[in-house]
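Lab manual, section 2.4: Encoding a predicted structure.

Procedure: take the sequence of the chain (180 residues), apply the prediction step described in section 2.3, and record the output as structure tokens. A sample record is shown.
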Amino acid sequence: MPIERGLILDGRRSLHEICKPLAAELRRCFLLVGVQSGPFDLWSNSEFEDNEVLRERQRWDVPRLENTSTTGMRPGTIPQFADWLVVDEFAYYFAIDAPESEALVRAKVIADHVGDLSEQFLRDIDQVADLLIVHGNGWWELYSGRPDWYDLLVTAWPDCIARPLNQAGTPPPRRDRFRG
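Recorded output:
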């Protein structure tokens, strides 16, 4: 279903918290993580070395992503490792709910659009990703063409703000800023 609007949330929430309403669904999704310094936070997790082999098994080889700041991750990365994924200013998390062969085809298309928050790309993102989560500088943006996922997010986050796609990637206006 073409996307008409995105949802924005307060950026002080963790990625794990943002993903919680869709945890069961995201558990089966392939994930593309577009961050400059990741995908995993190597410094703030004291258990990192103990779980390094497990996390390495989560990596999903997407040849089109070689030499980029985007990494492919296997199903189960979210929610299991959400707290260990890097959340930078303008980080992108694409969830693909499809068999691996189809997910790979979709990932190749997404590879050319990581960081693209144009209205046209977002309107048609449902053709390649089931969910896009963007962390801006102080806010989260969520885009899904799946009505059931969208409804779960709106229900879970009654304080979310729906706004048109042409405002993607821009800070919420002062009157819409989140109270803390």
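Check your result against the sample. The radius of gyration is 15 Å.
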